[in-house]
Amino acid sequence: MDAHEVAASAAFGAREKWVALFTILRREVSRILRIWSQTLVPPAITMTLYFLIFGTLIGGRIGQMDGIAYIDFIVPGLVMMSVITNSYGNIVSSFFGAKFGKHVEEMLVSPMPSWVILAGYVGGGVLRGLMCGGIVLLIAMLFTTVRVANPLVTVTSALLTAIVFSLAGFINAVFARKFDDVAIVPTFILTPLSYLGGVFYSISLLPPLWQAVSQANPILHMVNAFRYGLLGVSDVSLVTAYGVIGVATVVLTAVSLWLLHRGVGLRS
Amino acid sequence: MSLPTALSIRDLRKTYGNGVEALRGVSLDVAAGDFFALLGPNGAGKSTLIGIVSSLVNATAGEVDVFGVSVLRERSRAMSLIGLVPQEINFNMFEKPEDILVNQAGFYGVPRRLALERAEKYLTQLQLWEKRNVMSRTLSGGMKRRLMVARAMMNEPRLLILDEPTAGVDIEIRRSMWSFVRQINQAGTTVILTTHYLEEAEQLCRNIAIIDKGGIIENTSMRALLAKLDVEQFVLDIDGALPALPELEGVRFTLVDPQTLEAEVPKRVDLSAVFAVLSAMGVRVKSMRNKANRLEELFMRLVDRPAEVA
């Protein structure tokens, strides 16, 4: 073996990067399916209860929201709640678990560039988010007729939202030092923002001041973009919604890559 | 075109955030194909050094090249040449051994079909093939260590770094692991080893560096280092009553019990002289062994501290 052979064996080109990315994705999907009772069943049960209680029992008395039957109005929000919590939850538990168990080092000592690691984990988070969103949509069909007014907006808003919250979950996992740290953000930030993000109501019901305050909640824009995709109605401008999602994606991607590159919380 | 040095380290420094200076300008070369021992007391800087070479630790200053490829500037290319067996067990306990190996190969860009072939090869060679589908957490300590060796081989590295790979492993498994690593080395892979068991380093390694307080205090061939040992201590099992302690110039005898005699013999004194004086006193030597491992004796002198090695 001479220096030429060594140089050749040191190559890590596009083909190798694709294999590495696919390996992380495969591992993430197999984890989601292996622990399906923790990853796929809970949103199905929770959302069934939401449809039953808020949609059928209480919703029948509420009547209409923005001219739409209440149960139809809450379908997009409940789907997006599942997408958000599951894409976030998947990456935060998977990556923090890898950090805690030290097997993240398997990837850190490999030739994989930072962006491949990030793309693999974000891909896993997006897949779980969309799988759970799909399950909730199927459950919704048991309670009402689901229609899709604009397929492109439906798909892109769900996909981009899953990416945003996967990235946010990744950043949480990078900074987390103990298991408590991965529960703080979902409990104290994600859940309140989701409930105040127009899942169960139209912000037109709020006084003008709180309508303006609500605009600062990114989840409001994501839920409404998805609602526009399914029902064709939205409390916010679609352009603003995509702008918010786009900026969040770019900023969180840049922060995640910087953290990985610097090895924050990973390399000493 | 000749083969570059397997590992070249120049003026490597590491100061941690808490101000601890773990490496104070380390320079070191490991030749391609070598079986190299890196020894030092706990806290000497070995793990930091290995961490920087394997990119788990960020260097403060200095240069590290693996086969001429810079770890600090061309991390991706350099890492594809290295296999690491870390000190701590660091695989996912909820995955199966075969999956752990195939995933590791995937991280190095090895296609799945080839990864499966390699997994079978290395699991078989390390006697783990029958355990390929069990949950990894159910493996014994020795099996977990062997699994990490197999994992480090999945990219068929040019440089294999073993950081205390036999810690807590019984003698039989240790021997089988060393036999495996020796074969890997004979096939052309450069091996760097840190170990608590200095007799292993003495038997396996051709060259050695000793690190202490963040600096290299010795870097030479194993033969040259052992030649520095000017006094050796032997334990002799004797047959026959010893009326008095033997007398031989330069040699110090100590009677441990009526059947055991210890002798500190300088290099300049032939062992045959020791046997001759004992024979003249009517004492037969039934067996003889070194009191301590030769490398261990040297190590203790060099680092000048109690027996806390590697």
From TrEMBL, chain A:
Coiled-coil segments on the chain, per record? none
GO MF annotations in UniProt: ABC-type transporter activity
Q: Which InterPro entries match?
A: ABC-2_transport_permease (IPR052522), ABC2_TM (IPR013525), ABC2_TM_bact-type (IPR047817), ABC_2_transport (IPR000412)
The alphabetical list of record keywords is:
Cell membrane, Membrane, Transmembrane, Transmembrane helix, Transport
Q: Where in the cell is it found?
A: Cell inner membrane; Membrane
According to Swiss-Prot or TrEMBL, what is its membrane topology?
Answer: Multi-pass membrane protein
Indicate the family of this protein. Belongs to the ABC-2 integral membrane protein family.
Q: Which GO terms describe its cellular component?
A: ATP-binding cassette (ABC) transporter complex
Q: What is this protein called?
A: Transport permease protein
Q: What is the lineage of its organism?
A: Bacteria, Pseudomonadati, Pseudomonadota, Gammaproteobacteria, Lysobacterales
Biological source species: Pseudofulvimonas gallinarii
UniProtKB/TrEMBL annotation, chain B:
Highest taxon in the source lineage: Bacteria
Return the PROSITE patterns for the record: ABC_TRANSPORTER_1, ABC_TRANSPORTER_2
The residues covered by the ABC transporter domain are: 7-238
Q: Which InterPro entries does the annotation name?
A: AAA+_ATPase, ABC_transporter-like_ATP-bd, ABC_transporter-like_CS, ABC_transporter_ATP-binding, P-loop_NTPase
Keyword field: ATP-binding, Nucleotide-binding, Transport
Q: Name one GO molecular function term.
A: ATP binding
Does Chaperone show up as a keyword for this record? no
Q: Which Pfam families does the protein's record reference?
A: ABC_tran
> Can you say what this protein is called?
ABC-2 type transport system ATP-binding protein
Organism of this sequence? Pseudofulvimonas gallinarii
